[in-house]
Amino acid sequence: MTAVAGRVDAASASGNGSNRARRGYASGRDDYLVRLRKIEGQVRGLQRMIEDDRWCPDVVTQIASTTRALQEVAVGLLNDHLHHCVMAAAKRSDAEAEAHLDEVAGTLRQVVRL
User: Fold this and answer.
1) Is residue 5 domain-resident?
2) Which residues of 1-30 are buried (b: 16+ CB within 10 A; e: fewer)?
3) Single pTM value for the model
C-alpha cells in the first residue's frame, strides 16, 4: 500500500488485477479508451501530414487540436479522481483527504509546467 490509504500501486497489485483498487474513472473507462484511440488516429494523421510535406500552419493546427483532446482526457480523469478517490478519502479521514488533495496539487503542478 502507498502512503495514501486505499490506493494500490500497480507494482504491488497482483498480476491478475484482483487486488487493484477500483479507479475513479472505471465507470467511464470505455469512453476514455474510445477518446484515446481517436487521439491515436489524430497522431497517425499528423505523421502522414509530415510525410506528405503538408503546409506548416495546417500541421500546427492539427497538433493544437490533438493537444486539446489530450487535455480534455486529463481534465476528465482529474475530475473523476476528485469525485471518486478524494471524496472517498474525505469520508474516511481528514488526513487521507489532505494526502489526496496534496497528490492532486502535485499532479496539477506537473501539468502546468508542460
Assistant:
1) no
2) eeebeebbeeeeeeeeeeeebeebbeebee
3) 0.73
